[in-house]
Amino acid sequence: MSVDATAQNGAPGRSGSPVPDPDRQQTVAPEATHQSRFTALLASSFGRNLGLVIALVLLCVVGLATAGDRFGTFDNAMTILRLASVIGVISVGMTFVISGGGIDLSVGAIVALGSVWATTVATQAMAADVHWIVMVFTAVLVGAACGLVNGVLIAYGRIAPFIVTLAMLAAARGLAEIIAKRRTQIITDRDFIDFFNGNVMGVPVLVIMFALAAVVGWLLLNRTTFGRRTLAVGGNPEAARLAGIKVQRQTAYLYILLGVACGIAAVMIMARTTTGSSTHGQLYELDSIAAVVIGGTLLSGGRGTIVGTVFGVLIFTTLTNVFTLNDLDTSTQAVAKGAIIIAAVLLQQRVAGRSHKT
Amino acid sequence: MTRGTGASPLLVMADIVKRFPGVVALRGVDLEVRPGEVHCLLGQNGAGKSTLIKVLAGVHSPDEGRISWNGNDIQLSHPQAAMDLGIATIYQELDLVEGLTVAENIYLGHEKTRFGFSRRAEASRATAALLARLGHPEISPSAEVGSLSAAGQQIVSMARALSRDARLIVMDEPSAVLDSGEVQRLFKVIRDLTADGVAVIYISHRLEEIRTIGDRVTVLKDGATVATGLEARETPTAEIIRLMTGRAIEYVFPPRPGVPDGDPLLSVVGLARAGEFSDISFDVRPGEVLGLAGLVGAGRSEIVETVFGARKADRGTVSVAGRTLRPGSVDAAVRAGVGLCPEERKSQALLLGDSVARNISLASLARFGRAGFLGSDGERRAAEEQVKALDVRPGKVDAEMRTLSGGNQQKVVLARWLLRDCKVLLLDEPTRGVDVGARSEIYALVRRLADSGVAVVVVSSEIEEVLGLSDRVLVIGEGSLLHEGPSPEIDEHGVLDIIMRGDAA
Lengths: 358, 505
Prior knowledge:
heterodimer; A: 358 residues; mainly alpha; ABC transporter involved in vitamin B12 uptake, BtuC; two-stranded antiparallel ribbon; 2% strand; B: 505 residues; alpha/beta; Rossmann fold; six-stranded mixed beta sheet; cell membrane (chain A); transmembrane (chain A)
């Protein structure tokens, strides 16, 4: 019934009674459009992002109020962004997997494995002979390979993503421990560390990498056939299949893409800590999934927003920063994070529910 | 030996009316069932049988009408109320939990307990007794239901009905999943039940079964009872078919201009899939509309999905313009110019949360991508062209898919394939959930497509629709091709007759 009503409202000129129409439009229109404009705004992607902006601004206000002198500096802003950058790159990749209808729990473990493999004695020796780019390639290749294994098992082996990536979570970290023999591997290549810890016009390279990942991710998701296929596969895999889209291949690509993002994140964390370690990336899966979900990407797939994800990452990182500046412990942070996730998802459902009804 | 003659009726349903938003599913159904009889319910797809048994099971509450049980007026406001009275329904899609055992399934919802602990031994004993009563003592109460055959599951379903001391058991096409030996055993069970005074409402499309097991017949058409209390054994077949057919048609079919001569565009040879259909062969020429008629479950959707590659054929070939398609590959079919508008529009065809434009371009994304990048203008313009050509309303390509009516959603799916310049279009139930006005538009559209040289295959449960729309018709019954011929040379009676006799004419 509501469908009919909307259809008619959508094309008032078509309805069979032309006489009362202009009248009704004149009297009812202002209020009605006002109302609908507001709800439409809330439901639009801009509206959802507006909510995230408000949340971030509120957090900053709290930060300024409680630790104004230390919070409100350029250096602190860069600290927040630097902290956000590693999880940010992973979250951009995670946005693709989740909006494609999947999930990946193994990102943290892949980061650890990538960082360890790229910092072994052998890899570092080769890097010393050739160029530090060898380490970057190694980390990215390891990430892509893990993503390929995930993707193939999920898409062609038809095993639930939750199970496959849970297995990868265990296996990749275990392999990292075996390779590193549970020791932290120090990076000796100063050029590598200097390059990634450097600044370009005052902005840290790590932050630039995050920004690039976000821009590339946004273009890929919103402006390419790849992105469109991702959303179609996540929204209705059967419809996508019957429209001639290669659903399995697309699914596999998504996990490989996220694997590559994990490889890049591994390079970033190697630079930040100047080490490769099997303990890198602990709980990154939770942080990245949380950021993606509060950003407004549907956990069930079919809708994804890179802008939302970036805000999600920034909100969590700023929260951590504010808490740290106020000397609150990590346990309190965890509780606050949990509350934010639930609040965001509740809000998301309300909005989704509203657009279902109209 | 009609049982229960003269006995006071167990169940009386009078003037039952049930409306759903936009449709009247039942517009005055009368049904009277006596204790110990097998009462057969006949009617075409969409006549209202399913809705009626759901009313009886307490799933739907009727908007008007009276139901009385043993002479007392009753309200069946929820499924539990029906069960408490002793009305048990065995649905066509069996509603068993496959991971639980036979005994657990039978006592699901009314477990034998003491102080909150389930009494497994007793449930097991009672289950064994029930199964023995049904003539199947070989089924173990501790077997997992998922491991049983379809027939075995049917028996479990029936045991569950009995476990609730059912006085009336509704069986919705119970024989559909059974082979002939199993059907005979089912009949024996039914005879034992009726001898104990249990009444059975039996729904089947097989006239021969109705003659064997039934006592009386009620015929539904368009949501109303057209005949009740017919003798199941003596009423002539012609009479029954006459009652079931002749629905008032409110829509017009476009004229058939005649199919131009030419080589077949789509050729299907010896197509088969185990358990679904076998040895299906047909050709479709450009400009021709081929209809696939048959009842729900006859295998028509499976056939078109296999032609499209969405299901992989066990045997047989599909070729388009002389080139054989790789079996089981949607991609190959789409590249060869085949498009499918699937049966379940919402779950199989549409991205409901996305815009009309995105739904239209879904099968042609590569065309709009330049090195993978989508220029939004080209896509939008193409979608707008299609929306205008097919008169999709509202005519806004940004509208969210779920806000469109059924008919307009169907047009969007058609537009998707038109945009791809399809040469072969497979339409599965193109007018399901489409209102009367939009139906004629879709019919005209299908004919226009054929006139432009497209080979069209139409599947529909509405026999009149298939006949009215197509140039040539195939009648499918239980996975076999029963009849092939020009559509104008056969009518609804003829088709139903072929289906209900169940063998090749």
